[in-house]
Amino acid sequence: MNYGIVIFPSKKLQDIANSYRKRYDPHYALVPPHLTLKNVFSADDDQIKDIAGKLSVISKKYDPFNLKVYKVSSFQPVNNVIYFKVESKPELQGLHDDMHNQNFMGDEPEFAFVPHITIAQKLSNDEHSDIFGSLSMLGIDHEEIIDRFHLLYQLENGSWTVYETFRLGKEQ
Amino acid sequence: MNYGIVIFPSKKLQDIANSYRKRYDPHYALVPPHLTLKNVFSADDDQIKDIAGKLSVISKKYDPFNLKVYKVSSFQPVNNVIYFKVESKPELQGLHDDMHNQNFMGDEPEFAFVPHITIAQKLSNDEHSDIFGSLSMLGIDHEEIIDRFHLLYQLENGSWTVYETFRLGKEQ
């Protein structure tokens, strides 16, 4: 089964992201707006229990933190993905690193971690320049507290369901 | 903000339900297949913290239980909704009742609790007879263990995001 680990931001930020995703992101109907901590990976039922246990330990290492979204950016020329850029934070980097080390699943991160919330993807080069031009002008400036992350699994139709929520911090 | 409380069944059962929902349920893209424990309700940020606390207490009262889906049924003539009928269980009834009593939010259940997973809705009378005819013949027979439920909230586009997962049982 395919799994992934994400942060869902607040309804407010999700609604803003969806106002763009509706038109520019073919994954709009498959998953709510999110910040990916760990990309899609495959695990069986036993492995995922072990992973859920490790995520529970990781979630207790980090306190809730401030998420700041401060501009519209793009991964071009690597690919035509437009996103809300999220300010790097020790908690975000720590969560990502803990999910990509030898003790977790033994896999290395594919890319340097650029925390982001995708708002447009699978664009042609022309679409990309047009849309990136207008979205950059509109801009984004938003802050909120993140206090949880989610382990998701993927259905056959490509959509994602939450398997479990992990709250950050030691009070739990 | 709008909230709801549901059980997401296993990937296997969700995939079966989606094979029908894709054609017959306009909510297909808004939420994965689910068994509703508490229908949509409105709560503000303070209320939902209180409710999440109460759900945590409720989740510890019930152990994981066997969910049995044993036939395709319909709510006609009340409305043209076709669903997988779920066998009643003390745990299911208990979860539902605890979420509809004076100490929870003070609201009464709207209907008697008929545990089900919707696979078709918003059908005309003619569509309903056709589809119900064929789906009843196909039937359904599936069992699995349920060990968690989810508190969801609704975005402006009508789709649902998980706010928190609650695991059943005392070991947590």
UniProtKB/TrEMBL annotation, chains A, B:
Sequence motif: HXTX 2, positions: 116-119
InterPro entries the UniProt entry points to: 2H_phosphoesterase_YjcG-like (IPR050580), Cyclic_Pdiesterase (IPR009097), YjcG (IPR022932)
Active-site residue numbers: 34, 116
Domain of life: Bacteria
The protein's Enzyme Commission number: 3.1.-.-
Any GO molecular function: hydrolase activity, acting on ester bonds
Motif extent (HXTX 1): 34-37
Keywords of the record: Hydrolase
Alphabetical list of Pfam families matching this protein: 2_5_RNA_ligase2
Family according to the record: Belongs to the 2H phosphoesterase superfamily. YjcG family.
Descriptive protein name: Putative phosphoesterase FHE72_08375
